[in-house]
Amino acid sequence: MINVQSNFNTVIMLSFQGETEKAIEQTNYQWLMFYPCLYFFAMWDAYKDADGKNSPLMFLPFVFSAYFVTVGVIYSSTFKINNVLLGPIWFPILCLPIGLLIGIVIKKIILYKIENSN
What we know:
By secondary structure, the chain is mainly alpha-helical. It has one domain (32-116). It is 75% helix and 3% strand. The protein is built from 7 helices and 2 strands, in the order ααααααββα. Strands 1-2 form a two-stranded antiparallel sheet. The radius of gyration is 17 Å and the shape is elongated.
């Protein structure tokens, strides 16, 4: 439903064709902002079930990734890098490693503090 309501497939196609302005026009941002949270929750759930061991706080990289990709979606229609508008597909993808890295760092800091508080 989110995919269809946000026009996501059309936006992906236009973005791959370099038609960023058309992709922005076609995007229903009210629906597309749901996509990262749903997507990263599904990835975390699959990871959790497939892992076999319980890694404490492993949800944090997924949470921060969803947050930063959602923020990327919000600013994707106006944010430019080197005067290039990346649009609703490429800019959120570029935000992903930032969220992932921050989530991993925060997880490590919390686990370090827990281990050394004893």
